[in-house]
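BUG-258 | component: ligand-complex export | severity: low

The export step for adenosine-5'-triphosphate jobs runs without errors, but we want the raw record kept on the ticket for reference. Input record follows.
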Amino acid sequence: MSGSTQPLLVLSDVRKTFGGVTALKGISFGVGAREVVGLIGPNGSGKSTCVNVISGALPPTQGQISLEGQRISGLPAHQVVARGLARTFQTTQLFGEFSALDNVLVGANVCQRQGLLAQMRGWRSARRDTADAQVRALELLEFTGLADERDVPARRLPVARQRLLMIACALASRSSVLLMDEPAAGMVASERRMLSALIRRLPRRNVSVMVIEHHMALIMEVCQRIVVLNFGEKIAEGTPAEIRANPAVIEAYLGHQQ
Ligand SMILES: Nc1ncnc2c1ncn2[C@@H]1O[C@H](COP(=O)(O)OP(=O)(O)OP(=O)(O)O)[C@@H](O)[C@H]1O
């Protein structure tokens, strides 16, 4: 882990098997506070499995994952979000008919402390919460460059802007760690530049990021540290410059090209 950052998300010896296939062979790494960490590797190296295991979509076969010192491995996805870890997906997970603003408000509800019953009992404070959520949602739309599209149904937004909206929704849950699964997929260069600027601004909002991405230039630009997987094993970890020059990483990528 780099410099002075404290580990926020920690994976210790995480293993995942699917029948006879071992997708993760005992992976360990951490993500520090306000750090952007990239997870890369050739096709089939275990990146998606890693994200699925961290986010609670799949239980690990072995090993531990903790967030802010609390164990999250084995918890279902909604409890992982409630503990402060949100993710964005490769494919759109938005409510297509809802406006951009309403999608962000749904994201905020994921973590709203007041449950439905409490809201019914305490109408006044519930109304204040709703007003607060609205202000915050508008600020997140501003932050992700979607303020002008606040009333546009999500399905009408171009794919790249839907991806930005997914980021706004994930941030609305007030998570301390954001897992991004191929956020640049389907984006053209100008959209990638916008995404890159957005990711680099996240640590200033006290959000740590783990990003999986095939677009190497984007990874090299936004990450302070990169973890490289190959055949379910961590083969390297370091700064973008270290990773770029690492013979095992070059070999892994060249091997796959052949
Ligand atoms: N549900 C599953 N059942 C069986 N095998 C699986 C399952 N999910 C993943 N695998 C296997 O686990 C290994 C890692 O796959 P994973 O999708 O995690 O890799 P990846 O690095 O995300 O690949 P890509 O870059 O192509 O998305 C592969 O051999 C894959 O076939």
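Assignee comment: Attached the raw record above. The domain at 1-84+175-258 is CATH 3.40.50.300 (Rossmann fold).
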